[in-house]
């Protein structure tokens, strides 16, 4: 799953640390989400999208893997 | 910092003082010295910690520390990693107990190992109980989470 979290975060001029504190997760979690190493839970995905006043689909792009 | 820390610290210090008094009466009983130290040290740390963290200049820093710790504790990725770490440690424990059990039994053929049967039974029991606990906890979580 791809996401635009890093771009959105930078667009509001926040550091990873500040963003992490705002959504109450660790900085490492923000880093992992941005790098695509970790897919957040539905709840966290909602929190992130609400933070940027966007829908989940605007932030998280699900790409079906070819099997 | 919560007042309960001060209360608990005071209780520990009082218990430590009681154990110290008992040490004076029975100085040869080593466990009393252990209890005395085990009560005085954490009691001292809790009491001093309470007064240190409630000082006006330290209180905001402590609140920040608590907030950070709360975030770390409830971070969903950390929770997932803790679960994964527990699973790996469980497998390592099983593997180690199995390997050690086999190794000492093989070694027991060539050299005399005292209490070999008891050690084998203890390791086997550990191995068995670990699986039982793992399955039990997993079933519980499966039904309640």
Report what the structure shows.
- The complex is a heterodimer of chains A (67) and B (145).
- Chain A is mainly alpha-helical and 67 residues long.
- Chain A is built from 5 helices and 2 strands.
- In chain A, strands 1-2 form a two-stranded antiparallel ribbon.
- In chain A, helix 2 packs across helix 3 (27-34).
- Chain A is globular.
- The model of chain A has no long low-confidence stretch (mean pLDDT 93).
- With 145 residues, chain B is mainly alpha-helical.
- Chain B is 88% helix and 0% strand.
- Chain B has helices at 3-25, 30-53, 59-74, 76-110, 116-144.
- Chain B starts with a helix and ends with a helix.
- The mean pLDDT of chain B is 93.
- At the A-B interface, helix 3 of A face helix 3 and helix 4 of B.
Task: Explain the layout of strands and helices.
The complex is a heterodimer of chains A (67) and B (145).
Chain A: E1 2-3, H1 5-11, H2 16-23, H3 27-34, H4 42-51, H5 56-59, E2 60-61
Antiparallel strand pairs in A: 1-2
Helix pairs in contact in A: 2-3
Chain B: H1 3-25, H2 30-53, H3 59-74, H4 76-110, H5 116-144
At a glance:
The complex is a heterodimer of chains A (about 70) and B (about 140). Chain A is mainly alpha-helical and about 70 residues long.
**From N to C, what is the helix and strand string of chain B?**
HHHHH
**In order across it, which strands form the biggest sheet of chain A?**
1-2
Count of discrete alpha- or pi-helical segments spanning 4 or more residues of chain A:
5
- Helix content, binned percent of chain A: 55-70%
Instruction: Report the span from N to C terminus of chain A.
Output: 15 Å
| Amino- and carboxy-terminal Cα gap of chain B | 32 Å
| Oligomeric form | heterodimer
**Sheet/helix structural class of chain A:** mainly alpha
Note the main sheet of chain B.
none
**Major sheet size, sense and barrel closure of chain A:** 2 strands, antiparallel
Instruction: Report the structural category of chain B.
Output: mainly alpha
Unreliable spans of chain A are none
Backbone CA Rg of chain A: 11 Å
Mean pLDDT of chain A: 93
Largest interface: A-B, 13 and 7 residues
